[in-house]
Amino acid sequence: MGLQEYRKKRNFKKTPEPLTGRSSKKAPIFVVQEHWASHHHFDFRLEAFGTLKSWAVPKGPSTEVGDKRLAVEVEDHPIDYAKFKGKIPEGEYGAGTVEIWDKGVWTPPAKMRDAFENGHLEFELKGKKLKGKWLLQRTGSANGKKSNWLLIKRHDREKKSKVDLIFHHTKSKKKARKKTLGLKNYRRN
C-alpha cells in the first residue's frame, strides 16, 4: 500500500501524528494502540515492507487459543507511528485519543510477502502482554477496498492468561467515555 493513503487522509498542520519514519534495522516491531475514536477499537500494527501494516480490531486481540477477532485492514502507517500516543484533534481523520496498549518485536514468516499476498500470515509476538504464536487470516469478504482478516491466537508454549487482557489492561468504560467527550459521533461498543 505505501503511505500515500495515510498522508492523503491527514492534515499535518493540525494533527500531531507522525509524517514519516524509518525501520529500526533490528528485529521488526509490532504495536497495539488503543484508540478512542468514533468507535472504541484497537489498532494492530506489524512492521513490514518499510511501513506498519495495520488493522483495526474492534474487540481487541484475544489470548484465548482459537478465539477469532475481526481485524479490518486499514492504510499502512509510518514506522514512527509505533511511538505515537496522544489526541488527534476533532475534525481530523481518526479524531480521538490514542494510547500504546502493547509493543514489542515480532517474528515474521520466512516468505513474508507470499504470506501477505496469500492472506495467511503466521507469526510470533514478543510483547509485554501479547506473546506466542498468532495467525492473521484474510477472509473472503472485503470492506470497500480493504480486506477483512481474522486475528487468531494459536497453540504454543505460552501460559494461558486466566484473565481477559482487554478488560484488565484497558481503562474503564467510564474513563474511555470521558476521553471521547466532545467527539460528536462517538458510539459505545
Explain the overall architecture.
The chain has 189 residues and is mainly beta. The protein has one domain. It is built from 4 helices and 9 strands; from the N terminus they run H-E-E-E-E-E-E-H-E-E-E-H-H. It has helices spanning 4-8, 112-118, 165-169, 173-179; strands spanning 29-36, 40-48, 51-57, 68-77, 86-88, 96-107, 120-127, 131-143, 146-153. An 8-stranded antiparallel barrel has the order 1-2-3-4-9-8-7-6. Residues 179-189 have low confidence and may be disordered.
Give the count of structural domains: 1
The residue fraction in helices comes out at 10-25%
Mean pLDDT: 83
Low-confidence stretches: 179-189
Shape: globular
- The secondary-structure class comes to mainly beta
The termini sit apart by 29 Å
**What is the strand tally?**
9
What percent of residues are in strands?
35-45%
Number of helices: 4
For the largest beta-sheet, the strand count, sense and barrel status come to: 8 strands, antiparallel, barrel
Query: Can you write the helix and strand succession as a string?
Result: HEEEEEEHEEEHH
Features:
mainly beta; eight-stranded antiparallel barrel; 4 helices; globular
Topology, pairings included?
Elements lengths: L3 H5 L20 E8 L3 E9 L2 E7 L10 E10 L8 E3 L7 E12 L4 H7 L1 E8 L3 E13 L2 E8 L11 H5 L3 H7 L10
Antiparallel strand pairs: 1-2, 1-6, 2-3, 3-4, 4-9, 5-6, 6-7, 7-8, 8-9
Give a quick precis of the structure.
This protein has 189 residues and is mainly beta.
